[in-house]
Design goal:
This protein has 342 residues and is an alpha/beta fold. Helix content is 45%, strand content 19%. The chain is built from eleven helices and ten strands. Helix 9 links the parallel strand 9 and strand 10. It binds 5'-O-[(R)-(carboxyoxy)(hydroxy)phosphoryl]adenosine and zinc ion. Zinc ion binds next to helix 4. This is tRNA N6-adenosine threonylcarbamoyltransferase.
């Protein structure tokens, strides 16, 4: 099986070819990702209209590069898989319509993929994981804990009731005058900061409700920052370190609950796995917290390489292969309309 994947749901224009030869390990034959970060940096966040236009300009070249890189032509491809939601609708339209056009012209099946399914199945591409497993997805747009039970069989156990975690990092950076994207810059500043200087809240910690919340923490950061104007470099570092400690603590509490629930619901799974995905998974403090939690709870901690944790098209091509293999690709196709809130 050889599938061309296309991803345009946010600010990465991406195409990839993934192949699966019988029972062998899948191969990422090509994986091209063009980030639009520079186009959006001046605005401190992703501007949907700019993103859609940048996808239009780049996508055909990226697809050509992905095919060339993999040494295949369209004739060798079994199907085309494209992200059809959730995401920014302009980008989704560009990617899905391009995929439909190519599939129609080449006479190939078209598989509409849910972006979150791409993230959810990545660990099977990189680590050959068996179902079921637990997924923590922490990106700029999503903060979810999902029980991944099979292809097309996902149960969301927790989500954020306000901001996504990456969004909280980005907004914190903005308040402190750090450049976009905020996450890596907050982490960098935190490295020289005192994590005990500010006692920021740990939202939802201890709550019986499983969900996340980060807007209260963001407000606390804003109050701390406005109380000490002008901020010295050390103040910024201390706020970042204290924010990151609060996030790791709050996140850890939520994940610990989910690990316990997983044990209860899947008692036959001898060594269950927690998989992380999304850009925030790059954060070393967060990773260390999760690693420790998993070790204590007897879970394997699976963090696919960052390039496959953040937005990419290999995960979309792979989801296409999974759906083809499971006989679940028929319900999709040419009639599928992009769903920004899918
Ligand atoms: O998965 P991703 O690349 O794109 C989507 O949101 O789909 O995630 C981007 C998010 C941004 O909010 C960014 O600030 C955050 O991940 N991020 C980080 C780090 N690197 C990226 N957050 C915390 N620490 C990091 N090192
Ligand atoms: Zn994503």
């Amino acid at each position: 099986m050889r599938v061309l994947g296309i991803e345009t749901s946010c600010d990465e224009t991406a195409a990839s070819v993934v192949t699966l030869d019988g029972a062998a390990t899948p191969v990422i034959a090509s994986n091209i990702v063009l980030s639009q970060i520079e186009e959006h940096a001046a605005f401190g966040g992703v501007v949907p209209e700019i993103a859609a236009r940048a996808h239009v300009e780049a996508l055909d070249g990226i697809i050509e590069a992905a095919l060339a890189d993999s040494g295949t032509t369209l004739a060798d491809i079994d199907a085309i898989a494209a992200t059809a939601g959730p995401g920014l609708v302009g980008g989704l339209i560009v990617g899905l319509m391009t995929a439909k056009a190519i599939a129609a012209a080449a006479g190939k099946p078209l598989i509409a993929i849910n972006h979150l399914e791409g993230h959810a199945l990545t660990a099977r591409l990189t680590d050959g994981l068996d179902f079921p497993y637990l997924l923590l997805l922490v990106s700029g747009g999503h903060t979810q804990i999902v029980a991944v039970r099979g292809v097309g069989d996902y149960q969301r156990w927790a989500t954020t009731i306000d901001d996504a975690l990456g969004e909280a990092f980005d907004k914190t950076a903005k308040m402190l005058g750090l450049p976009y994207p905020g996450g890596p810059n907050v982490e960098k500043a935190a490295a020289t900061g005192d994590a005990t200087r500010f006692a920021f809240p740990r939202p939802m910690k201890g709550s019986a409700q499983p969900d996340f919340s980060f807007s209260g923490l963001k407000t606390a950061v804003r109050q701390a920052a406005t109380a000490i104007q002008p901020l010295s470099e050390q103040d910024v570092a201390d706020i970042c370190a204290s924010f990151q400690a609060a996030v790791a603590d709050a996140l850890g509490d939520r994940v610990a609950r989910a690990l316990a629930r997983f044990r209860q619901e899947f008692p036959d799974k001898a060594t269950p796995s927690l998989v992380v995905a999304g850009g925030v998974a790059a954060n070393r403090t967060i990773k260390a917290t999760l690693h420790k939690l998993c070790a204590e709870a007897g879970f394997a901690f699976v963090a696919p390489p960052l390039k496959l944790c953040t937005d990419n098209a290999a995960m979309i091509a792979w989801a296409g292969i999974e759906r083809l293999r499971a006989g679940l690709s028929q319900e999709n196709g040419f009639d599928f309309v992009p769903r920004s809130r899918w």
